[in-house]
Give the backbone structure.
Amino acid sequence: MGLGMDWEKGQGHYPYQAGIDAYGNGGFRFAGMSHRGSLLCLPEGMFAWDAAAPEDIDAAALSRALASSIEVLLIGTGDEIAPIPRALRQAFRDRGTTVEAIATGSAVRTYNVLLHENRSIGAALLAVVRARV
């Protein structure tokens, strides 16, 4: 299967929300393609995400997610769980979105389950080198 048309143009956008087939080695596999780097998964599609470390996670980095109509946003904070600033959590809460910060592997697994259940879900996933099983 080929890459999405926007991904081929280097825009880092796949126009559909998709389950994550694999993660690790600094990236993700989904929809028959591979992406190196962090990933933002929303009902509007899959997007390359510039965040590389927990300290990069702020309102600017998550502006696309803040504009999306989702019930839950899972934030995969890398190998370990990292706190999300209170003001950022409140910004999502004000929009009716629950935010859960968990390790990237747990976020991927939970995202896939909730997506399969047709829930209104989003995930902001920091890339990790090693997948934990």
The domain at 15-125 is CATH 3.40.1230.10 (Hypothetical Protein Mth938; Chain: A,).
